[in-house]
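Journal club prep — side note

Before the paper discussion, L.F. wants everyone to see what a predicted structure for a comparable chain looks like in token form. Sequence:
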Amino acid sequence: MTFHAVLVANRGEIARRIFTTCRRRGLATVAVFSDPDADSPHVREADSAVRLPGSTPTDTYLRGDLIIAAAHRAGADAIHPGYGFLAENAGFARAVQEAGLTWIGPDPAAIEVMGSKIESKRRMAAAGLSVLDLLEPDAVTEAELPVLVKASAGGGGRGMRIVRTLTELPAAVASAAREAGAAFGDPTVFCERYLDEGHHIEVQIMADAHGTVWALGERECSLQRRHQKVIEEAPAPLVERIGGDLRERLLAAGRQAAAAVGYRGAGTVEFIAAGNGDFWFLEMNTRLQVEHPVTECVTGTDVVGLQLDVAAGRRLSGAEPAMTGYAVEARLYAESPADDWRPETGTVVTFDVPGVTARFERASLDGLRLDSGVVDGSVVGTHYDGMLAKVIAYASTREAAARQLAAALRRSRVHGVATNRDLLVASLLHPQFLAGTAGTGFYTAHPPAELTAGTGLDPALGALVAALSDAALVPLLARGFRNIPVGYRSRIYTAGDTEIEVRYRFGRDGLEVAGRDDVALVDAGADAVVLDLDGVRRRWTVGRFADRVVVDGPQGSLELRRVPRFTDPSAQLPAGALVAPMPGTVVRTDVRIGEAVVAGQALIWLEAMKMEHVVRAPADGTVTELPVPLGRQVSQGTPLAVVTTDG
């Protein structure tokens, strides 16, 4: 069969990635978009685009009927689902085929079997693969702990909870079911044994309709937060370290899983492995994976191109591609890792990653690839995942790839939203990661605040750079230059919750900074500052938006807020007020007014970006206000409760 125009039933980075291959193949491209995405890059880059009225996924990207109607209206004769949303929805796949369109994905029957984690485990066990036993949540015993509560449908870490005591199991099951129902429309959950120091290994599968099944190497994705992958790589360091026939057995198991369900197209067979190389089948993702770029780098393939070939009925020809070199991918998120991975929203004022050699396609050796869904001016909202970009380094050695990636991230300029960039750099350079021994418990053993402590740009130095740059915006005399000694000028900034005062003056001998004598000013402008620090010249660039100043340099980035000389009393919150850390919906409240609470106690659950986030009591006290009712949508900073401290 042939097709000429492809509609991508998705958004952001993955839509742009698929469009790249389609354009290279001479295929027309069609985008769909929700109202918040009307000006997104994927919409501007498509040959044509169709609006899906509404803002939420339920009203837009999860409306298969609207997407199929959009394809007919725009003249598309094929649909690629990307990942997430309807990518693993067998009903949508059938509807696409029944509408006379080409479905660029596996057969609906395979999606149905493998899309259910419960059914796929049963099918794989029957096919001879080792699986972790299914445990009914209400039958878990003390001896089986710890367990992982998992949603049967979907992926992306949603509907998953680690449980270590029987007393916390009922609440974890209820929360996971609620989250799974909201994200996938299916609240079914189950339990399985949890390996604290396991390794997440997966095999990329590509199968055609003529009986050929390729295993395009393996990946390791052990560094995860909230069961979502953060750093991925190929080949897997665990497999490299153990050697022997482990890779051969893993790839064979991947092919065996695909063959057992007559699979066609791209898919990923996921395994959990112990440190000794024993491994068990976890699930199969019947779609393109977020981390497919690392496989493309090391195998020299275009996985999306192979999807198009298979959907058109072509054979997979030639030898099964083997891996060469090492690729490491980091997911750059709008989030605050030290604040319990809190999602961040806002406008991306500046987005610049240096040294990029390829975008949305395979990088050459020692190259850097960028797959991004945002550009300068893009808005990160609450309705969709907060991933800004994937940055991928490809090199001849694993350490070279990791260090190249860390250097690129450190020098990136991302202004307007908080990101996990510093955590990614610290993770990539951590001795355990460089040694290839990091498992799925890495961030439990090394919390984000601990990993990033002492890294990045010194706040006091960053504030000095900001003050000198701000001063350069006004005429020389207004900056305080005098021929006779005068008092210091003062500027105040905050970095997070820390207030920093900078005291400086320009005298006959140049810059004088209160409290330090190792600084000499080389040059200061509105966009850049050069200082001599104890005989070493260093340069920083400076960006501004709203009341913020962002200082970027080789040591990292620092965002500062200018503190006004006078504050509005009406803007101050009452003592003990707990505010919404991000826009979202209040889905659960566990306390009442007048109830005594203890520090750290979970009080309110907020749903944002399809995941639940807990707001906890800051100290022992009594709940005196609960101003927001259940089900209410709130903006960031909205007071949710007031806890009055005792005494």
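L.F.'s comment for the group: The longest helix spans residues 169-184. Keep this in mind when we get to the figures.
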